[in-house]
UniProtKB/TrEMBL annotation:
Lineage per the UniProt record: Eukaryota, Metazoa, Ecdysozoa, Arthropoda, Hexapoda
Keyword Hydrolase: no
Top-rank taxon, per record: Eukaryota
KW Signal (keyword) present: yes
Designated name of the protein: Pheromone-binding protein-like
Signal sequence extent: 1-24
Key words of the record: Signal
Gene this chain is encoded by: LOC106114255
One Gene Ontology term of the molecular function aspect: odorant binding
Gene3D superfamilies (alphabetical): Pheromone/general odorant binding protein domain (1.10.238.20)
InterPro entries: PBP_GOBP_sf
Natural source organism: Papilio xuthus (Asian swallowtail butterfly)
Length: 159
């Protein structure tokens, strides 16, 4: 019995060292803010290539403003470009779930937040027709992302 108790204590101690403490992760709102900022930076790069006459994009700056209506098709084009740039989609437009998971993990999402955001990406991607890689599908996906994140209460606010 003592041997069993000793083995159990050793096993639990080993597991405790392998599990990342929850305070090592960022709160969901911070994760979404970081992801949004990184995606926004990439979308700015895409905008410079695709729409050189736009120097400042007020649509991107207002994205998290709850009064802003996400309707500018140009944002959809930038979303398609940004997702591809970050390798969150395969070249044929399908979502790259492994890379989405890595992207979320790299932005300090805890396992629960990562799972919810991963499911959001997959669902919005599939429901938008994103595989077509059209600007309108990208816009539909963006609307879905924003709506879902707002429903979770994780919207970072207007920039």
């Amino acid at each position: 019995m003592v041997l069993l108790a000793t083995l159990l204590v050793a096993l639990l101690s080993a597991l405790a060292m392998l599990i990342t403490p929850l305070d090592a992760y960022e709160p969901p709102r911070t994760v979404v803010n970081d992801i949004s900022s990184k995606m926004g930076d990439i979308m700015v790069q895409c905008s410079r290539k695709m729409f050189p006459n736009y120097h400042v994009d007020p649509d991107m700056d207002s994205f998290w403003d709850p009064n802003y209506k996400v309707q500018e098709v140009r944002l959809g084009c930038l979303a398609v470009c940004g997702m591809r740039w970050l390798q969150l989609t395969h070249s044929d437009g399908r979502i790259n779930v492994a890379n989405v998971r890595r992207f979320l993990t790299a932005n300090d999402a805890d396992p629960s937040t990562r799972w919810q955001l991963e499911q959001m990406f997959v669902t919005c991607h599939q429901n938008s027709g994103f595989e077509q890689r059209t600007c309108s599908a990208g816009l539909t996906a963006l609307r879905c992302y924003r709506t879902t994140i707002e429903q979770y209460g994780w919207a970072p606010g207007s920039y």
